[in-house]
Specification:
- The protein is α/β, with parallel strands linked by helices.
- It has one domain: L-arginine/glycine Amidinotransferase, Chain A.
- The protein has helices at about 25-35, 55-60, 75-85, 125-130, 145, 160-170, 215-225; strands at about 1-5, 15-20, 35-40, 60-65, 65-70, 85-90, 110, 115, 135-140, 150, 155-160, 175, 185, 195-200, 205, 230-235, 240, 245-250.
- The longest helix has 10 residues, at about 125-130.
- The radius of gyration is 16 Å and the shape is globular.
- The protein starts with a strand and ends with a strand.
- The mean pLDDT is about 95.
Amino acid sequence: MEYIEQPNLPEGEVGLAVVDGRIDRRSEDTLRALGIGLIRLHPHPGLYEAVSCHPDMMLHHIGGNVIVYAPGTDAAAVSRLEAYGFRMIKGESVLTPEYPHDIAYNVARVGKWYFHNLKYTDTVIKAYMDHLGIEPVHVEQGYAKCSILPVDGNSVITTDVGIERAARKKGIDVLRLECGDSIRLPGLDHGFIGGSCGMISDTVCAVNGSVDKLRGSGPMLSFLSERGKTILQLSDGYVTDIGSIIPLMLSGSQ
């Protein structure tokens, strides 16, 4: 298998992804049937229950074989990723349950930009971004990756007005949805669109649940179709935020 060079945007079919260890069995079976190996995360002791296993809260894929992770991240998962050849770089920020001390790694990479509340971005992630010449885009929304579904290097879907405004200023194509509580996140009022999805190939966006139960699914399907993408729903249940499906490696069959 080959490493995915551009975070969140695989160049072909995905062969390895990291997911919440509590992922629904139907969703897990659907992904595995496609030949996608899954690394499931166990709870992080510094995060509250609803998001304690969410990959986008404790890992950030820099690109290629480099991942920055929060101290306290599931040691078994870190070891498994190292076995795949990833350079696992421990971040500086220690996660605690109180906002904004839980958001340091929830950075949304979209092509040549990264979105985050820059007051709280982990310094190790920031140093890598500076080195790579990735442009920072400040947004007030601390849960930036939760709130952004990268579609391609110049297109995103979000439910956040501030993110929509900031992205448009950069010339990025944006679809803003109002999904509300049609995205579930047990323990909280609602989940986020980015946290409910992930690209599992260069043309397929996986949704953790049934799009028929997602408010705004029509515009989402159209936006994706206009960019040569389709949706694969992983189950027939409610769309549920699982902290993003983060693609890391391409299938070896390509």
